[in-house]
Amino acid sequence: MGIFVNDRAWNLKKAKENYDWEQWHLKRSQEAVRKGDMSAAKDHAARAKSYHSKGDEYKRDASKSTK
């Protein structure tokens, strides 16, 4: 568990960064599937899921922020 940063704008920025990385990895996962590289596709899909979870955490923190 990380440290809570009481700054709504900062948390929303970090959420967006994580969602952007999620999309990047999803795209790479799809490209890997097209190339038949299932190992890379699985790795990118797992990373995308992780970035999505982190983005959700930052969004929750933003909703709790008072500044």
Describe this structure in words.
- The chain starts with 7 loop residues before the first helix and ends with a helix.
- It has helices at residues 8-35, 38-64.
- The chain is mostly helical and 67 residues long.
> What is the overall silhouette?
elongated
Helix count equals: 2
Q: Provide the β-strand percentage band.
A: under 5%
User: Element order, helices and strands?
Assistant: HH
Given helix and strand content, the structural type is mainly alpha
Flag low-confidence runs.
none
Mean pLDDT: 96
Q: Termini separation (Å)?
A: 21 Å
- Major pleated sheet: none
- Helical residue percent? over 70%
Number of extended strands: 0
Cα radius of gyration in angstroms: 14 Å
Keywords, separated by commas or semicolons:
67 residues; mainly alpha
Brief rundown of the structure:
The chain is 82% helix and 0% strand. The protein has 67 residues and is mainly α.
Q: What is the secondary structure topology, with strand pairs?
A:
Blueprint: H1 8-35, H2 38-64
